[in-house]
Amino acid sequence: MAADFDRLIEDANQYAQNGDWYRALDVLAEANKLKPRDAGAVSGMAQCALQLGKPEEALTFFQQAVVLAPDSTDVHNNLGIVQAILGKLEAAEGSYQMAITLDPDSSQAWKNLAMLYLKQDTRVKEGVDILSAVVQADQTDSDAWFLLAQCYEEVGDIDSAKELYGKALKHSPDHLSSKEALNRLTQVDIIPERVSDLDRIARPEHAQKLASLKSLKGLKKPTIDPASGLDDVKKN
């Protein structure tokens, strides 16, 4: 049975790499019948459902995966992504914070939590503070630099946005989103009426310097996207 399960997982991964999410989901469902308590297969089914535009189904699968693998940072993080997509912001926050509790150095969970805060007008500064801490802990995190740059572009601080997009490209020269943003901003001037919004965010160079992401665990209270493949489907 183990050999059959492994073969099905390999087939599912191949279908996913080819973008054939329907077949990948069908094959994973067969694998799930062989090992109903395998969290990797269930998580893979959730990712397939999400790629097929069925977030409610993905939510159900990830909720099952959390029960099967309560100590998995990735499962809690992915559950939070789906909850955020469905507008369940408080639940998503809880899932991201659980992922962080399990692994305080999970930069992806921190970035997802930051994006969740950035979508809420009253919590923008918290989101920026988290992103600032992420890049202070890892200067090579181009995605975090990109997200910070977007914050400054949104409030009209074009010079800062350009600088931060440049930092993203310094560490990842092929960071397409940053390239496109820089090209776009060469045509943009600062919008005076939006500069007043700058007090909503903290400039990265003025942010409190944090030696480690672990020091962010005291945040008060209590979404770039799921992986395109099925890399977290493990063979047991």
Question: What do these coordinates show?
Answer:
The protein has helices spanning about 1-15, 20-35, 40-50, 55-70, 75-85, 90-100, 105-120, 125-135, 140-155, 160-170, 175-185. With about 240 residues, the protein is mostly helical. It folds into two domains: about 1-105, Tetratricopeptide repeat domain (Serine Threonine Protein Phosphatase 5, Tetratricopeptide repeat, Alpha Horseshoe), CATH 1.25.40; about 125-215, Tetratricopeptide repeat domain (Serine Threonine Protein Phosphatase 5, Tetratricopeptide repeat, Alpha Horseshoe). The radius of gyration is 20 Å and the shape is elongated. The model is unreliable at about 190-230 and about 230-235 (pLDDT under 50).
